[in-house]
Amino acid sequence: MEVQDVVLIMKDGVMTILAISAPMIIGALVIGFIVALFQATTQINEPTMAFVPKIIVVFLALVFFGSWILTRITQFTLQLYENILRMIV
What is the pTM of this model? Predict the structure, then answer.
């Protein structure tokens, strides 16, 4: 197994992680910005006011994107299993 193969596998792994985490991160970022804007305009500084909506958005993102996330992880894992003999030798 060459160094380029290892780098390619690591790159695919990182890209998979970034892709499957993007819906939750982007959703939490948008809701966090909206809540922070609301808190800045009303001068309400309640920490739970920012925390609870983020949890709800992350949960909803997992519900809506869960099947896509599972498919993406399964494809990556199957790709690793298909190439495991080539990697060992």
Answer: 0.79
